[in-house]
UniProtKB/TrEMBL annotation:
<dbReference type="GO" id="GO:0016799">
    <property type="term" value="F:hydrolase activity, hydrolyzing N-glycosyl compounds"/>
</dbReference>
<dbReference type="InterPro" id="IPR001910">
    <property type="entry name" value="Inosine/uridine_hydrolase_dom"/>
</dbReference>
<feature type="domain" description="Inosine/uridine-preferring nucleoside hydrolase">
    <location>
        <begin position="27"/>
        <end position="292"/>
    </location>
</feature>
<dbReference type="InterPro" id="IPR036452">
    <property type="entry name" value="Ribo_hydro-like"/>
</dbReference>
<keyword id="KW-0732">Signal</keyword>
<keyword id="KW-0378">Hydrolase</keyword>
<dbReference type="Pfam" id="PF01156">
    <property type="entry name" value="IU_nuc_hydro"/>
</dbReference>
<protein>
    <submittedName>
        <fullName>Inosine/uridine-preferring nucleoside hydrolase</fullName>
    </submittedName>
</protein>
<comment type="similarity">
    <text>Belongs to the IUNH family.</text>
</comment>
<feature type="signal peptide">
    <location>
        <begin position="1"/>
        <end position="23"/>
    </location>
</feature>
Amino acid sequence: MIPCSMFATVALVVAFLIQTAAARKNLILDTDIFSDCDDAAALLLAATSPDVKLLAVNVNSHSTYSALATSAILAHYDHAHTPVGARRPLTNDTFFDAKDFELGEFASKVARHWSGGTLPWGTAEKAWDPITLYRRTLAASEDGSVSIVSLGFLDNLAGLLDSTADDYSDLSGPDLISAKVSELVVMGGGYPSGYEFNFFADDPSTTAHVINDWPGRMVFSGFELGQSVMSGDRFVAEGPPGDPVRAAYIYHSYGAPHPSWDPITVLYAIRGLSDTFEYGNRRGYNHVEPDGTNAWVDDANVRNQHWLRLKLGNDTVGAELDRLYLEAAWVADNPLVQAEMSWRSHRPIFPKAEL
Ligand SMILES: *[C@@H]1O[C@H](CO)[C@@H](O)[C@H](O)[C@H]1NC(C)=O
Ligand SMILES: *[C@@H]1O[C@H](CO)[C@@H](O)[C@H](O)[C@H]1NC(C)=O
C-alpha cells in the first residue's frame, strides 16, 4: 500500500463526509443496555452510520455499568464526546439470567475493559440527568429536526413529556417535543396487539402515559419484527478481536445468532422505510393499558402513527445488519487501512488472516 495514495483517499473521504454532513439525520438514543447485547449493536449502528448525527444517548436502566458501557462503546467508535445521560438512582446491579440461566452479563465487562468517553470507569455519577440532557439537546436543535429512538423503558421520555421551562427552553415538555421532534421511534409492544417486555417490565403506567399522550408522530417496532431477524453470529466469527460490541455478543450469547429488536429499530430510524420496511397500517393509533398491554385502535382521523413490517426476508435483513457491524468495526479497528480498502473495492474487506 502506498502511503500517499492512502492520504489522498482519506482526504477524499473527509471531503465527502463534510459535504454530506448537512444531510445527516439527528438522532437521540434512549437505551436499556443491560440484559441484552442488541442494545450494543444499536449503539454501534447509530455511532457509525454516515447518515447520522448522534446528538446524545440516554440510558434508561439504573446500573452504573449501563452508563459506563454506553460511554465506552461511544468512545471506541469515535464518539468520545457524545453526552450520556443516566437514569437515577444509580445502582451497581449486574445482569443475571434468572429466567433461562443461559445468557451472560456484558455491561460491566465492556465498561471496564473499553473504558473511555465522557464517563470512564468509576464516573457514572457524572452522567447527565436524562431529562436535562433531552431539554438541552432539543433546545439547541433546529425545529422538527430530531428523531428520538426508544430502545427500552420509557421513564426518561415520561420525564421529558412532564418537564417544564428551564434554563434551556421556556417551552413545556409537550411544546418542546412538538417544536423539535420529527419522529419518536419505539421498540416495544406487539402489533397489532401484544404484551411485551419494554412496555410492562419497568413501570407500565409510565409506558401508557408516554405512548398515549405523546404529541407527535410515532413509529413502532414490535417484538415480532426483531424476533425473527437474527444477527451477531457472523460479526463474532469475522469481526476484529478488539471490538467492544463483538465482545458484548460473546459475553452475552456466546456468538450464537441473536434476535435484532434494537438494531432493526435503529436501521429504520436511519433509513426510513427504504426497501426494507413497510407500514403495517394506514391509520389509527397505539393504545397502552396501565398493565403494559398494547393494542391498535382503528381511527380514520389519526395518520401519524404506524407499526413496521419487513418488506425483505428475515435472513436478508439479518445479513445486512452483520455486514454493517463488520464494516463499522473494521473501520474503527484501523481507520486508514479500512478507508483505503473500502474505497478501492466499494466493499468491506475482512482480513481474516490477521485474526
Ligand atoms: C458502586 O461501586 C463503586 C465502587 O465499588 C462504589 O464507589 C459506589 O459507591 C457504588 N455505588 C452504589 C450506588 O452502590
Ligand atoms: C420472518 O419470520 C417470521 C417468523 O418465522 C415469519 O412469520 C415472517 O413471515 C418472516 N418475514 C419475512 C419477510 O420473511
